[in-house]
Structure formats: structure tokens, C-alpha cells
Amino acid sequence: MSLSSSSYEAVIGLEVHVQIKARSKVFTRVATGYGHEPNTLTDPTVLALPGALPVMNKAALDAIIKAGLLLGCRIAPVCKWDRKNYFYPDSPKNYQISQYDQPICLGGEVEIELPGSARNVMGEHKRIPLTRIHLEEDVGKLNHGASDSLVDYNRAGTPLMEIVSDPAMHTADEAFAYLTSLRATMVYGGISDCDMEKGQLRCDANISIRPVGQTKLGTKVELKNLNSISFVRDGIAHEIKRQLAVLERGGTIVQETRDYDGMTGTSQSLRTKEEAHDYRYFPDPDLMPVVVDEPWKTRLQAECPELPFAKQRRFFEQYQLPYTLTSVLVWDRALADYFEAAATAAGAGKAQAVGNWIVNDLLRELGAAKLELGQSKVGPAQLAALVKLVDAGTILNQAAKEVFVEMFATGDSPEAIADRKGLKAAPTDSNELEQWCRDSIAANPKALAEFKSGKDSAINAFKGPIMKAAKGKANPKAVDETLRKLLATN
To answer: Mean pLDDT over residues 258-274, rounded?
Structure first.
């Protein structure tokens, strides 16, 4: 029985851990990092040696407050720190400094876009409410070998945000869209690189099912070890099917934590789920509460960038860009900035042409060369210069493609390349051009009738023979103007 045809609905909440991009750890000055020799990024505070005391990292507080402002959270005027007690080998203290009943960020939401009805069609937008965001320290990492397990405490103490959604999603696609949007927000804000391979973004999913129309939540199952955004989507879809199958057999859903294997598409039980009281939270006696005043929030609000969906709506309105372009441009902040710089340099009315060159040509060449945008030899001003040359008819479209490839390889200006390779459109004798236009009109009476009846696009039928007669080097603007002059009197 599929969920869509059943009398049950899924209820999904996500707990997302995001490592804050900071030079030092959250309660000590020891450096953060990835890929270092095991246990080299530690000190007495990280290892909880006797007499070591935590000291708050203000940069980590700045980052989480900024994240809360980006997501529309209420920033608590006062927050405090708590000890969350559990006994795992990757926790050197046997407790984690976290926030329990007074988190720094409350409420907020994440805007998402669901898949459209077809490719390159905008899907439905929804807003997923958040419960809270709190700051805590990360734990170490267990490395499992064939006959032993070794612990590396380099990651321990790294500043970590836990972003908790309301149980407000109902499909695996919604969860996928939520994580995609949340990740983009954190990267846009410079809060985290969110590289899942480096453990900078980790997600646990809580899934339950209930009869449609019922408001009470069903028994919750938590999925762990979801190592990619795609695995989150696949794991949730798998868990929904598993729970439905249990109910169909007359069984009972057990509250538990399950491990999902994205490679095999299967899960297995790890343990029964702990409740909050199992962690024996109590206020940390070594850390003072933090007061967040208005000037602090105002300073960070001024640093908040425009987010992808807001930027997309502005691109629609300001530049009249189609969804096919905005859906590519806005998800990379550097790419969006590149576009705006090039569109401004190109001048009014040329933004869509700029967007087309970026999406279709620049990204293709970057991908083929395995380069990042910042490594491109084609800057926004150079791309704008090419667009202006094409718009003026100095370089024809097909020749411009060749010019761009050379620009990407050499960094030379488009005009210099066009001169060097003889790719500029040749000046056309006006009498000769007019004769070619007359010949094309006379040879296509059907297109003439359609144009006369009000079908403006019919004019394009005349242009092919004219360009052929001009050996592809006639100025397109001159062709269009001459045709319209003749058609108006024909």
C-alpha cells in the first residue's frame, strides 16, 4: 500500500547539525580543522583534564545569532549553557556542553521549493517552521578498523549548531528541499561550508505516521547516519514504507533509533530512543549566561545577505529573467554576484543575454576545465563586452561562440580575438542588402501573407536566405531594419 493511496500520512521533523566556520573551538582557543593527524587539535579543555575551564568563543555566538536572523528566528535576550550527560567514547568529558531550556534562537522558518510539474518549471513554495536553534560543542570521531576502534578528538569542541524543525514535513521530497535550502542559507551567510563529506552538515530524521485527519503524532523513529541529502530523502521514503508495512501486518511501531545504509537502501535498529531525562541535563556551573542586546543584533543584521529565493524574486522583477536562468544563478552567491556585475556593465536590456552566456557557456567551460568561477579568465566586464558586440551586430552569434571559447582559454578581450580571427561581421552595401531582402520577400509569399496578417515572427522566415546570400556576415540589426522598411511598403 503506497502512502498516497492509504489513509495514513507521514510526519517528518529534521534535526540538522551544522559546524560553524570558526578558527577556534567553541570553549577554547585551540584551532579547528579537518584532515589533520589524529588528536593534534586538542588541549586540556577539549580533553576535559582536571582544572581546565571553558571560555566562550564570541565568533561562534555571532555566527549562530546571524543564522537565526537569516531564518527569521526570535533571538533570546538571555541564553544559558547546560550539560548533557552521556557516556560514549567520542565524548571526552562524558557530557556535552549544550543548551536545553534556554536556546539562543527560537522559531523561524525555512522557505523551500518542491519539484515542479515538469523540468525547468517552478514548483510550489512552502515555509517549514523551526522550533529552535541552539549552540553546542561537537564530539570526536570513532574510526573503526577490522579489529579495533580508535577515537580522534580533533573534531571535539568544534562549534556546532543544532537546527530543529517542527514536525511539519510530510514527504521525502519536502525534507530534501528543506535541506537544500537550509544548506544554501548557511553557505550564503558565510556561517558554514556545509560539506557533508567533512561532517560539516549532519542530519537526523524523525519520522512517524498517523491516520489522515488525526492531530496526535504517531510513534517516532529516528534515522541516523544519513550521509548525503539524497540519502536523507531515500532514508525517509524507506522508513515511511517500513512503518506502513508494520501496521499492515498488524504490528506496532516501536520508538527507536535506526541506522540507514544509503548504499543498500536498508535500515536496522540501533537502540531504543532516549528521552530528555535520560541525559540528566543541568546548568553548566563554569559558564555564565549570555545577554544579547539590540546593538549586537543590529550589527549582525547588517551583515546578513539577500537569500536565494529573495534574490530569485528580485531577478524576476528587476531583470525579467526566466526561471530557467534564475534557478541556476541564485543558488551560488558568487555566480549571482558575477551575473549582476556583468548585467550592469552590459547595460539595460541585456541581462537575459548575459544570463544565457553564463548558464550555457561559462558553466560548460568551467565544468570541462574543472575550474571554479574564481579561476575563470573571463571576468564580468569581458563577458559584458562580448554581449554588447553581439547586440550591436559587430559579431554574429555563431562567431561569438568561437570568440568566447578563445576568451576562456586566453583571457583576451572579445574585440581583439574577433579582429585576430577575422570574425567581425562585414559591412554590407545598403543597395546590395536591400536587393537580398527584396529577393527573399518575393520568394516567400506565404511568410509575407502571415506578416501582413499580424504575425510578427513571420519576418524570421526571410532572414535565413538573406544571411546565406551575405555568407553569414550581414549585420542582423541592419537586416531586420531593412526588411521592416520594405514590408511596410510591400
So the answer is: 85
CA distances from residue 15 to 102, 289, 364 in whole angstroms, order as listed: 17, 24, 36
Q: Which residues of 227-237 are buried (b: 16+ CB within 10 A; e: fewer)?
A: bebebbbbbbb
For 142-217, where are the alpha helices, taking DSSP H only? 172-188
Q: How far apart are CA 416 and CA 94, in angstroms?
A: 67
What is the residue whose three cell numbers read 587539535?
A: 41
Enter the C-alpha cell of residue 263: 548504499
* CATH 1.10.10.410 describes domain 430-489: yes
| Separation between Cα atoms, residue 168 and residue 171, nearest integer Å | 10
Please write the tens of the pLDDT for every residue from 218-234: 999 999 878 899 999 99
d(CA 115, CA 87): 42
Cβ of 58: how many Cβ atoms within 10 Å? Answer: 11
Backbone region of residue 393 per phi and psi (left: phi > 0; alpha: psi in -120 to 50; beta: other values): left
pLDDT level of residue 427 (50, 70, 90 thresholds):
low
User: Is the confidence at residue 123, as pLDDT, over 90?
Assistant: yes
Q: Dihedral sign, CA of 174, 180, 186, 192?
A: positive
**What is the rounded distance in angstroms from the CA atom of residue 346 to the CA atom of residue 340?**
10
Is the pLDDT score of 330 beyond 50? Answer: yes
SS3 (DSSP) at 381 = helix
Measured distance CA(301)–CA(22) in Å, rounded: 19
Residue 105 contacts residue 75 (beta carbons within 8 Å): yes
What is the distance of C-alpha 271 from the center of its chain? Answer: 33
Helices (H), 94-198: 172-188
Write b or e for each residue in 187-215: b if 16 or more Cβ atoms lie within 10 A of its Cβ, otherwise e: bbbebbebebeebbbbbbbbbbbbeeeee
Q: Give me the mean pLDDT over the 48-67 stretch.
A: 96
Q: What is the rounded average pLDDT of the residues 337-347?
A: 97
* Mean pLDDT, rounded, for 420-439: 81
CA–CA separation, 44 and 97 (whole Å): 15
Phi, psi of 303 (to 5 degrees): -90, -5
The pTM assigned to this predicted structure is 0.87
Map out the domains of the chain as residue ranges.
13-209+271-300, 308-421, 430-489
Place of cell 577539549: 46
pLDDT surpassing 70 at residue 464: yes
Q: What is the pLDDT of residues 125-177, one digit of tens each?
A: 999 999 999 999 999 999 999 999 999 999 999 999 999 999 999 999 999 99
CA 102 – CA 78 distance, rounded (Å): 8
